[in-house]
Write the structure tokens for this entry.
Amino acid sequence: EVAKGDDYELKAYKTYALKVDPDQNDKASEIKLCNFSRPHMRAFHCSWFSFFLAFFIWFAIAPLMPEIKKTLELTGQQAWTSNICSVAGTIFMRF
């Protein structure tokens, strides 16, 4: 319990894993991008990686499809199935 008249500052934590600015309510003053120990950074990295994969799955194969069909000797039905799988992969990665 805090005695009356004492100067007391409410803080969420006593120590932090990164540098904070005490003059701005302990807001972070640095970002550790390669640190996966905190859930915030794990969510950040999972989101950008999922977006990249979805973008790659959706757009990368279309311009190359004629060459891929010829090289892999795919039928029209097999090419259509690969397009469906591409869309399904994109939808899956967005969730």
User: Anything to note?
Assistant: The two ends are 46 Å apart (CA to CA).
